[in-house]
Amino acid sequence: MTASASGTLYVVATPIGNLDDLSPRAIQTLASVDLIAAEDTRHSARLLHHFDIRTPLLSLHEHNETGRVEQLAQRLEQGENLALISDAGTPLICDPGFVLVRALREHGARVVPIPGPCALVAALSAAGLPTDRFLFAGFLPAKDGARKAMIQSMSEREETLVFYESPHRIQATLRAFGELLKDRQLVLARELTKAFETFLEGTAAQLLARIEEDSNQARGEFVIMVAGAPVQVSETTTLEAHTLLSTLLAEGVGVKQAAAIAARLLGGRKKAWYDQALSLKDSGGE
């Protein structure tokens, strides 16, 4: 592969359920490129047919991605434009494409994102859990011991935790959360953008009981969102925060910016620091 590729690879987000979510820019891109690399060509063919897009397809999935790099790089060097799509959502987010994108960028190729649907972002936007900071950890391990070890390793994280899960493992995963984070608030999002889109919230035990009572609630792909661990603020941290916020406010820094600085330097949630800064400002910084 040379560094003089003149073509462009477009990384195109596709619908996670509702076909109307495919943007006009994505449609125009998919129709105009010379080739589309798709995770499952049969699945993507139905999407392209719906929009009367006749661009040729080439499979690119976890088993053949490495072997496709040189082939696609050569086409870019010849001046062709390519698109990369996955079965649903944004490529590379728990989907193939990382190996290809990394290799092409390392060799100077132009890679352009065409943003759009992403299940984790869609779920977070409607879950009602804090989104100023979150940790996306993809799919949990399939084996129970490894699954519990991974959950335990993140149990003290203060940001919202986000996972993907499949329908045949959702109950086992909820049992693990119930054992390790039994009092923590969870939100399950499933069938996002589809006719039976559902958000369920409660403890892991409550959600597991809901699914066991109604097997329909175990259908579809899941986004699991878990409230972060309670912020542990020591007396020293409280004093540091009071001094820092008071100084910032006295210097004319706005409440919002002061909160952002405190969160960055001392940890914790920006909203909590915002409330403290606002209280200090209202009391004259005392």
Key features of this structure:
10 strands, alpha/beta, five-stranded parallel beta sheet, single chain, 11 helices, 43% helix, 17% strand, 286 residues
Structure description:
The chain has helices spanning 24-32, 41-50, 65-77, 98-106, 119-127, 144-153, 170-180, 204-213, 235-250, 255-266, 270-282, and strands spanning 8-12, 35-38, 57-59, 82-85, 110-114, 134-139, 160-165, 186-190, 198-202, 222-226. With 286 residues, the protein is α/β, with parallel strands linked by helices. Strand 8 and strand 9 form a beta hairpin. The mean pLDDT is 92.
Topology, element by element:
Elements lengths: L7 E5 L11 H9 L2 E4 L2 H10 L6 E3 L5 H13 L4 E4 L12 H9 L3 E5 L4 H9 L6 E6 L4 H10 L6 E6 L4 H11 L5 E5 L7 E5 L1 H10 L8 E5 L8 H16 L4 H12 L3 H13 L4
Parallel strand pairs: 1-4, 1-5, 2-3, 2-4, 6-7
Antiparallel strand pairs: 7-10, 8-9, 8-10
Helix pairs in contact: 3-4, 6-7, 7-8, 9-10, 9-11, 10-11
This entry's quaternary arrangement is single chain
Helix and strand pattern? EHEHEHEHEHEHEHEEHEHHH
The DSSP helix count reads: 11
The assigned structural class equals alpha/beta
Low-confidence stretches: none
Query: In percent, how helical is the residue content?
Result: 40-55%
* Rg: 23 Å
Extended strand count: 10
Specify the overall morphology.
globular
Mean pLDDT: 92
Please report the distance between the alpha carbons of the first and last residues.
64 Å
Strand content: 15-25%
**Major beta sheet, strand line-up:** 3-2-4-1-5
Biggest β-sheet strands, sense, barrel? 5 strands, parallel
